[in-house]
Structure formats: structure tokens, C-alpha cells
Amino acid sequence: GKKSSEEALFGWIVSDFGLNDAIESGLVKTPRVVVRDDAVPDAKTYKSRLYHIYNDPDVKDDLNRRAQSEEPLPDLVLNAYYLLGYDWREAWKAWREAGLPTPPVMITVANRTETAARVKHAFDSKRIHIGELCDPERVLHIDSKVLDQAEEKEEPVAPLGMPDENGGDEDNEPVEQKLTKAEQAELLRQTVDTVGKAGQPGEKIQKVISVGMLSEGWDAKTVTHIMGLRAFSSQLLCEQVVGRGLRRTSYEVDPETGLFEAEYVNIFGVPFTFLPHEGGEDGPPPPPKPKTAVEPDPAKAEFAIRWPNVVRIERVFQPTLTLDWDKARSLELDAAQTAQVAELAPIVEGKPDVTKINRIELERLAREFRTQRIIFETARDVFDQMKHTWKGSREVLLAQLVSIVEQFMCSDRITVSPPLFYQDELRRRLIITLNMSRVVQHVWEAVRHENTERLSPVFDRDHPIRATGDMRTWYTGKPCERTKKSHINVCVYDSTWEASDAFALDDSGRVSAWVKNDHLGFEVLYVYRGVVGKYRPDFIVRLMNGDFLVLETKGQNTEKDRVKRRYLEEWTQAVSAHGGFGRWQAAVAEHPKETRDILISLDAK
């Protein structure tokens, strides 16, 4: 056959010049990642919690839910935005002094549209107190949902925040140019494509919030800061996100050194590094361990179970709010869990260069926050979550909340540890400010539990009902056994206790069908010490009388366990009161032999 040289096959290849080479040679910006801060690091990796924010246990569940835009972001996310935002503000000042025509840009890459909307709301409503970064006309929110909304608007519409390029009439009065819905969507796309370009629609943008990733062709050169709020399962994905900020603003050579001047992009939340791929030993890889497929069994469709997919429980409140602080749980804020100083290091030769540390501090933040401001903003955030179902005057509601929050802030129900931070008023205010979401959720939880008159479930708009038949096939190497009364072909055991419960449910004449809550998506939201989490009970049981039982097997009875069960009780009450899904109950088996007794007691009711 015809001989082919490498040049003939790949004539378009100039050289093998990777991203690492481009960074080290200065052809692109140098990424700087968080290497440490003054808070306690992640217990598993010993890295700063700001290194991979999304993976933090206080963050992941909160960002993976259909939250409303006004719901506060997790404190670690706000903490990160304050640190990164303060550094961005210093860059913004330097760029203004240098007379640059466009501002530096911070981009956020979020995991879902709801998270992006929460970030947008936090900036638009100045929840993050960096005024220069919170101008709504300079914040660009782009995702499929925003584009769909732009395209669905009635014709004609006026472009928001965009002046008429044709000027005005003879008196030089501005003329508002009406755009069709398609033109409005196209203008939004043009704004995205021209970020950082003088004289273009995107020239004033300084904050971009996107879902997933901005396209490969996005060529903004003014990105100086990146916030990652999504999962990063591979280094390729990290490189793709970081790559959105690596284009240099200038390629002028420094006459003294003959090199490009160093340019940097500071990164939080993207676990970016250059690590060599792990190499194995010679020979074939070892065979995989045998796995069992876990899936719905069509032959057992009679045991299928359906349940409502509740995204939140709304409450109707009594007109006069009361709160017994003697009964309310206290809130302790740990200064050791809050980063007030972060250090970033550039990636050089594939590793962080700790000899070139860039330091960010938040000392000034406490001076900007007075106690009355903290009280009012906490009350405002609780108000935002209550106003949708409040039947009376909103002014009266806000006044009541301000009074309740003031009592809380002045009481011994909120403490800061260690004592040095509690005794120093400036440090105390700083820790409270950086844990504002935790404070808001704590007060909100106390208010709603003592003042609720009626519960109303809100269902997922896309999937209001879930069922065992919806479960996707997955594989496990854990012990498992075939079942009689479960729609799923096998029950996977995480403990001998679960094996005992599975036998009891299969063997009981009072049980019509049951399923282990594993990969089913049955979750109940709860708030513990101001942190939002997802509670996943062990079993769902359909009884012979048509009622449903949510069964938890737990040998422990911690305060956190009791809080979870209280939220589960609210869930069952709200769903039962709705009337469309039968009667639901919840129970806890604190001993392997207790499951049978629970079934007998329910049958007797």
C-alpha cells in the first residue's frame, strides 16, 4: 500500500504544545488556586474547603434542589464570594486607575438553573456586600431557561439595560427601541459573545453567571476570577472551565525582561491541578469484581409504589408571631469553620508554587457591618421566605421579624466560639456576617415551627410523582438478596440490621409492598443548625389497608436524628392532609426486632 508519513497524515499539526506549556511560557494567564486558609480544612483531603466548594457536605445537598431564587446560598458559598469579590474589587480599582475601557470579569459556573438564579438574586439584592460587583446592569445571567424566557416574551419588548444606539430625536431625547422576542434573545447572545469588548453590548459586564460551561469559542480576555459551583469529576472538565479565563488581555513584551508580563486568573471551587496520569504495572488490568444489576422487575409490577415528589412544604402562619426562646435551640457559630484569610498560589510546572502566594483578607468587612444592619438583613431574608404565604400586612410581618431577630441577636441563644471571638465585638460581627445564611435558616426554622397553622406540600413541576418503576438500573458489589414484595429485583444490604428488616417486611401479612429507599430519589429537606440537608429514610412500605409507612432503622438518637424525624413528620402530615396520595405515617425502629411490633401497632390503629 501507499506509504504515509506523519506529516502527510497530520499536516495541520504544528507542534504538541499543551496547556501546561502555554501557562509556563506565559502565552496565557497563570491560574491561581486556593492552597490554604485560616479555617479548618476538609477532613478527607486536608485541602481548603474553598478548593472544591460544591463537594462540601454543607453545600452539596443545598445546591442540588429546586430552591427558590430568594433562598439564601450556603455560608461557604457566601464566604467564598466575599473573599473572591474583595480580590476582584482590588483588580477593579487597579483597572480604573490604569484607564482600561472595560472592567475585570468574574464568572460563576453553576450546577443548575436554580443555583444560578440564587446567585443572581444574591448579587442583585446586595446579599453579598460588594457594591461595585452588585450592579444589576453589569451582571449577566445566561442559561437555557433565561434564553427560553427571552424568546417567549410577548412582542415587542424593550431591551433591559441597553441604550438605543441611534441616539434620540432632534432634541437628543433617548428613544427606547422595541425589540421582538427573537431580537431580545439574540441581543442576550450578543452580550455574552462580546463581554470585555469596548463598544459592544457586553463591554460593561463584570459578572457572568452561567449553568454548565460557557462555549469553547467564548473569547473574553478580561476574566480575572472564576467561581466553580458544580461537580468537577475530571481534570479535563476543570481545564475546560479554567480555560474560559486564560486568554491574556495584552501580549506586549516587557523591554527589560523580554518576556510577557505575568497575568493571573484567581480560582475558587475548581479543583484544578496538573497531575500525571497514574500508570499501572505491566500486564493486563485485573478483572473487575462481579456486580449485581439492581432494577425494577416487570414481573413484580403489582408491588410498585408511587409517592409525591415534594420540593418544599409551604406554611400558612398565624397573624401574630410568637417565639419562646427558652424552648428554641441555640446556635453556635464556629470561627474555625469560617475562612477570613485565603491564600492562592499559581500553578507552575503542574504544582502550586507556594513561594508566590497571593493573600486575600476580610478584615474590613466587620467594620462595614453594624449590629442593626445584621438584624435588619436577617429579618429581611426571613421575610423573603415567608411573604408568599403571609395573609396579612407585609409591613406588620417585617416589623415582627425585626423584633424577633433583635431578641435573638441580643440573647444567649447565639454564641461564637472560641470565646475570644465572642468577647471581641468586631470579630463577633465578622463571624455572624460570614455565617448569615446559617443565622437566617435557624431563625426561619424557629419561627415556622412555632407559628404554623397549616401545611401545604409543593410538588416538583416536572416530575410531581415518582415511582419504583422510574429507577434506573445500577450495579453493586454489596451483599443483596431477592425479594418477594418489592418491585425492585433485589434488596442491597448495608448492614445485617437491614437484612433483618427486609425479611420482616417480606414475611409480614400486614405488608402489601415495600421498597428500600436506595437510588429512588425519595428525600425530605431539613434544616439543622442553619444548614440545609436531605434526609433519605430507609424504607417505604404500603400496608394492606392502603396506608403508607416511611420506616427508618436507627440505633442512635442524636439531636440531628430528632430534627430529621420532625421534618419527616411534617412531610407525612402535609401529604396526608393533601388527600391525593392516601394516608402516610412515619416510624423509627430502634432495634432489629422492633419492625414487626411497629407493623402490629399500626394495624391496630
Tell me about this structure.
The chain is an alpha/beta fold and 605 residues long. Among the domains are: 6-268, Rossmann fold (3-Layer(aba) Sandwich); 292-309 and 464-604, Trna Endonuclease, Chain: A, domain 1. 32% of the residues lie in helices and 21% in strands. It contains 17 helices and 27 strands. Strands 1, 2, 3, 4, 5, 8, 13, 14 and 15 form a nine-stranded mixed β-sheet that branches. It is globular and about 90 Å long.
Concise overview:
With 605 residues, this protein is of the alpha/beta class. The chain is 32% helix and 21% strand. The radius of gyration is 28 Å and the shape is globular.
Jot down its keywords.
alpha/beta; Rossmann fold; 4-stranded mixed beta sheet; 17 helices; Trna Endonuclease, Chain: A, domain 1; 32% helix; 21% strand; 605 residues
Count the E strands: 27
Unreliable sequence segments: 154-176, 275-280
| Number of helices in the DSSP assignment | 17
Strand content: 15-25%
* Mean pLDDT across all amino acids: 87
Q: What integer value in Å does the Rg equal?
A: 28 Å
Largest sheet entry: 9 strands, mixed
What is the highest CATH level, the class of the domain at 6-268?
Answer: Alpha Beta
Helix content: 25-40%
